[in-house]
Every structure is written in C-alpha cells, then in structure tokens.
Amino acid sequence: MTDQVIYSLVRVRRIFPPNREVIRDISLGFYYGAKIGVLGLNGAGKSTLLRIMAGVDNDYLGETQLSKGYTRGMLEQEPQLDADKTVKQVVEEAVEPIVDALRLFDEVSAKFAEPDADYDKLIEEQSRRETKPGFSRCQYRFRSLLLQRRLERSDNRETAHAGRPRRLVFLRARERAGDG
Length: 180
Description:
Layout: E1 5-16, E2 20-31, H1 46-54, E3 61-66, H2 87-94, H3 96-110, H4 119-130, H5 135-148, H6 165-177
Antiparallel strand pairs: 1-2, 1-3
C-alpha cells in the first residue's frame, strides 16, 4: 500500500487578481504515509498551496485528485472558533456521530424511570444499541476525549476561545479525520 499515490496535483496554477501568479504549473504526488514539508520565502505561495491541497481554496487552474477512501483537512495557523461555544461543545462537534449514539442510548435509559415503562421493550432497545459495532468503543472514546480536556463535568463553561484554541482545533480536526 505504500506505493499508492493518494493525492496528486497536476499543473496547478493560482492567480490572484488582478494578475498576480502565486503558484505556477505545480505537479505533485503524495504516497500513503508520506510526511511532507513546504518551504519557501514569504509570499511564495506555501499557504495557498496548502489551502488548495486541503480543499479550502478552489479558485485554481489545473487538477487535484484525492483517492477514494481518504480525507483531507487543514489546521489553520490562526484557528477561528465560536466564542459562544464551550470547549466541550467543540469536542462534541468533532465526534457528532458518537455523541448522537450516546444521546439516543441515554434517552432510552431515561425511559426506565417512567411509571408505565415497558421494560422488556426498553431492554431490547438498549441491547440493540449496545451491540452495534463499536458502541462501547464510542463510549470510551468520547469520555476519554472529555477527560483529556478535563471536561467530564457537563457544567464546565470554559469557552472554546479561551485557553488553547490551536490544540482544540487540532483535536477537532484529528477526530473528524478518524485519526484519534
């Protein structure tokens, strides 16, 4: 698998108005597992190249191709976070399918406290959810993410903007890519 090119750029150009060509006729290919570095003088187009590679900048000429089954993303130099969200909410955003699965499980669990609860039906529903592939891994993963950020208490109001936004954005990007 190491000899598979998973991402390529072919004859890519990027021109900023009125006529400033920052990237000229670049062709690159990246193998699975490759580590890359982009070096150059200020204004040489390093960030522009990375934005094109991440799919953030689509105003280029030429072709890019990402192999099926792979994702791409970019960790901004100056991350932008919603100042109204808590750190826990940003982490939850990154692992939304896990949060949704846990929320549905908790909703079914809460129904056991209802006076007219059909226990057999609820137990069957819980069993179905618990036996889904990866469910216990989801529980463990989400709770460990919260513990990493000391967010096990739901009333934690540390805002996402405060503290370490770069670390938080990295965590979010890593979890979205499934590289956690």
